[in-house]
Amino acid sequence: MRAGYGGLPVLHGISLIAPAGRITVLVGANGAGKTTLLKTLAGVMPPVSGEVRVDGEALSGGTPADRVRRGMALVPEGRHLFPDMSVRENLELGGYLASRQQREAMLDEVAHIFPRLGERLTQMAGTMSGGEQQMLAIGRALVSRPRLLLLDEPSLGLAPKMVDEMFAALRRINKAGTTLLLVEQNVFQALAVADFAYILGHGEMIAEGAAWELRGNELIRRVYLGEAIAG
Ligand SMILES: Nc1ncnc2c1ncn2[C@@H]1O[C@H](COP(=O)(O)OP(=O)(O)OP(=O)(O)O)[C@@H](O)[C@H]1O
Ligand SMILES: [Mg+2]
Asked: What is the three-class DSSP state of 8?
């Protein structure tokens, strides 16, 4: 796939597979094009060329809502919550394509995955802590019952304890059957929960493979995981 903004190329012919039922992580430097890739997958912007396939079937064109109908949901960078609306109202927005009954069932499920949200359904979203707001952004995406959840840096700006909680929640969501494609800066933790990993350089994939394999790759550790070069 190729993608860019107004004739400016960002992604130059990349290919990525997120196998069903698994966690795939995409890491890479700032400006590499990770967000651009997720936005293209979610239908927020069209690819310049190439296609997005779900279960082998190509999705041509289509709005983000069409992609939600096909089982995709994006948790965008920066959350995009409605701060003056309650937790419940924010969650309900995630289920705007679902029936009322389905939506209520999903709200119960989200409250089970994130008990803190269940306890605070009437609280204004803007008064939640950063970590709680990130849980809410994920919860809102889950209400649409995605089979594939795309997450853009969910641990950004969170304290270490919240980061741990976030990764634990992502594991639970995956165990319950949702495929995850995760963009992360917390590379070690992301590789620890993931099955597969891709490393994006500037617009091109520079490595891909089993997550455990990339964790052990010397060059990757030095260059992309920021480890000090010994000696
Ligand atoms: N709306 C836009 N218009 C023009 N250029 C853009 C736009 N959004 C992103 N870009 C450019 O595309 C390139 C890739 O950006 P992108 O946000 O995809 O990177 P990223 O890998 O998500 O980086 P980060 O780790 O900082 O979030 C950057 O050079 C960026 O300046
Ligand atoms: Mg980004």
From this structure: strand
What would the pLDDT profile of 91-131 be if each residue is shown by its tens digit? 999 988 888 999 999 999 999 999 999 999 999 999 999 99
Domain segments of the chain: what residues?
Answer: 10-81+146-223
Parallel/antiparallel/unpaired status of strands 3-5 and 8-11? antiparallel
**Cα 78 to Cα 183: distance, rounded to the nearest angstrom:** 13
Residue with CA closest to ligand 1 atom 7: 5
Mean pLDDT of 214-231: 64
Predicted pLDDT at 231: 36
What is the fold of 10-81+146-223?
Rossmann fold (3.40.50)
By most ligand atoms within 8 Å of CB, the mutation choice from 2, 27, 35, 186 for ligand 1 is 35
According to DSSP, residue 79 is labeled -
Could you tell me if 43 and 64 are in contact, meaning their C-beta atoms sit under 8 angstroms apart? yes
Q: In this structure, are residues 170 and 151 in contact, taking their beta carbons and an 8 Å threshold?
A: yes
Ligand 1 atom with the shortest distance to the CA of 34: 21
Which residue has a Cα nearest atom 28 of ligand 1? 31
- The Cα 28–Cα 77 span in angstroms is 15
Tally of helices (H runs) and strands (E runs) in the chain: 10, 10
**Which residue has the CA at smallest separation from atom 17 of ligand 1?**
35
Ligand of minimum distance to the alpha carbon of 152: 2
Query: Rounded to an integer, what distance in angstroms lies between the CA atom of residue 96 and that of residue 81?
Result: 15
pLDDT digits (tens, 9 = 90+) for 19-46: 999 999 999 888 999 999 999 999 999 8
